[in-house]
TrEMBL record:
<protein>
    <submittedName>
        <fullName>N-acetylmuramoyl-L-alanine amidase</fullName>
    </submittedName>
</protein>
<dbReference type="GO" id="GO:0008745">
    <property type="term" value="F:N-acetylmuramoyl-L-alanine amidase activity"/>
</dbReference>
<dbReference type="InterPro" id="IPR002477">
    <property type="entry name" value="Peptidoglycan-bd-like"/>
</dbReference>
<dbReference type="InterPro" id="IPR050695">
    <property type="entry name" value="N-acetylmuramoyl_amidase_3"/>
</dbReference>
<dbReference type="InterPro" id="IPR036365">
    <property type="entry name" value="PGBD-like_sf"/>
</dbReference>
<dbReference type="InterPro" id="IPR036366">
    <property type="entry name" value="PGBDSf"/>
</dbReference>
<feature type="domain" description="MurNAc-LAA">
    <location>
        <begin position="242"/>
        <end position="357"/>
    </location>
</feature>
<keyword id="KW-0378">Hydrolase</keyword>
<dbReference type="Pfam" id="PF01520">
    <property type="entry name" value="Amidase_3"/>
</dbReference>
<dbReference type="Pfam" id="PF01471">
    <property type="entry name" value="PG_binding_1"/>
</dbReference>
<dbReference type="InterPro" id="IPR002508">
    <property type="entry name" value="MurNAc-LAA_cat"/>
</dbReference>
<dbReference type="GO" id="GO:0030288">
    <property type="term" value="C:outer membrane-bounded periplasmic space"/>
</dbReference>
<dbReference type="GO" id="GO:0009253">
    <property type="term" value="P:peptidoglycan catabolic process"/>
</dbReference>
Amino acid sequence: MRPIRSGDRGPAVAEIRAVLTGLDLLSKATGPFSDEFDAATERAVRAFQQSRGLSVDGRVGAETWRALDAARWRLGARTLYHAVPVPLTGEDVRSLQERLLEMGYDAGRADAIYGVRTARAVAQFQREVGLAPDGTCGPHTMGALRRLGRKVVGGRPQWLRESDAIRQSGPTLVGRTVVIDPGHGGTDPGVVVPDGPLRWTEADLVHDLASRLEGRLAASGVRVQLTRGPAPETCLPDIDRAQLANSLGADVFISLHTDGHANPDAEGVATYHYGTDNGVTSATGERLAGLVQREIVARTGLRDCRTHAKAWDLLRITRMPAVRVEVGYLTSPADRGRLVDPRFRDRLVEAIVAAVQRMYLPIERDVPTGSIDVSELRAAVAAGTMVD
Ligand SMILES: [Zn+2]
């Protein structure tokens, strides 16, 4: 097909202009009322090509035509399903994938193709809201997505149930499973600092922290599993770490990292939980992240770089309260000087244990940050009395 280009005229141009108008790339006042490929049409085509990652030449060849055709579909206008062998594609599929991702479902990349992974994410959503999990997005599923999609503050329905489950499960840590994830490892050392007596790689340091944390939690009756040993051969991708935690049925997932920056003045601790820019968040993940952050700041004096919502694989795919902690900057002489001190690392670990314990205290029985002696608290829990 010869590309449709500047100067052309006719029904095909009128159709192109209609789609571009629907996408707000052409003015509603003039867009639909002409069949001329004018300068405004060319600008709109270029903008469209850029937004879709196509080569930007301002002409409508076969590839751009297909993309424009797919762009017509608005979510809800047709039933979406996993078609074989040629999958459905379109803007409606992309909107659906984005909505599923925002809600924490593993729909893969928002690539506008309704493949197996999208169908599986739809089926999981259907199961959680009590619809037949057939992986097909018809009017009922669309209705449930509309009702829940942007309104539910706790994110996906599973997270609301999670909060309830945590409230009802009582304050004891005995028998719970915590997966600790020392970041990096193997071929990936993470942040590396210059040679000298204070030399540590991030991978080694966070493994040391993970082992200390493992010991402290195990002493509280927690089943602990690390995602890697001290010197693995390869570096496990985040997605595999998350899936390991899922397969172990973990109650809590804690990923340990240190930060690094070209500016040696950058320092402090930051904590991350699942969430998106639109305010969708894992309520339990956010609570755990807040507790970890506040306990560490109170007990160690590291600068408070606050908690943040991120849609990283590690946090998105894990099905339990999950946090990633960046316990200071290895590139900061101040932070590094503290981190190489084993007593400081014990204080860090104590702070994380306190946070995990507070996660299971009913909110009205919660204690001030930095105030609990973990062993005292454990004794109180065991005796059936709570700390005030
Ligand atoms: Zn790291």
